[in-house]
Each structure stands twice: as structure tokens, then as C-alpha cells.
Amino acid sequence: MMLEPSIDSLMESINSKYTLVTISARRARQMQETNKYLIDSFDSKKYVGIALEEIKEGKLHYKHEE
């Protein structure tokens, strides 16, 4: 079973697996509460999967502050 989007393609946008997991989990909770999405069509049936698809499409970003 191949997961889509792949971790390699997601790591091009966000270079930390920890950050990737944190952002997708926060976004999943937000989608669950608001039922609003940043992309029009998606393959996943779960909120975390949709969040990962949003990251892959470049619709979800984060700002790294030092």
C-alpha cells in the first residue's frame, strides 16, 4: 500500500518530520471544527490526509521564527 502524498514530496515543502506532523494535526483539528478546506478536491477521507494534501499543493505553510 502506497501512501499519497509521499513523505518525500512533503519534505520538499517542510523539512522537518516533527513540524510536518504538528502542522497537519493542527490543521486537521481546524478542519474538523470549521469544515472548511484550502483545496477544492482531495482523495483522502480523513482530515489529516486532507491536511497533508494541502501541504503538498502549497496551500498550507508555516513561518519559522528563531
TrEMBL record:
Cellular component annotations (GO), alphabetically ordered: DNA-directed RNA polymerase complex
Catalytic function, reaction form: RNA(n) + a ribonucleoside 5'-triphosphate = RNA(n+1) + diphosphate
Complex formation: The RNAP catalytic core consists of 2 alpha, 1 beta, 1 beta' and 1 omega subunit. When a sigma factor is associated with the core the holoenzyme is formed, which can initiate transcription.
Name of the top EC class for this enzyme: transferase
Name of the featured protein: DNA-directed RNA polymerase subunit omega
GO MF annotations, alphabetized: DNA-directed RNA polymerase activity
Keywords: DNA-directed RNA polymerase, Nucleotidyltransferase, Transcription, Transferase
Transmembrane region(s): none
Annotated PANTHER family: DNA-DIRECTED RNA POLYMERASE SUBUNIT OMEGA (PTHR34476:SF1)
Species the sequence originates in: Pontibacillus chungwhensis
Biological role: Promotes RNA polymerase assembly. Latches the N- and C-terminal regions of the beta' subunit thereby facilitating its interaction with the beta and alpha subunits.
Taxonomic classification: Bacteria, Bacillati, Bacillota, Bacilli, Bacillales
Family to which this protein belongs: Belongs to the RNA polymerase subunit omega family.
Enzyme Commission number, as recorded: 2.7.7.6
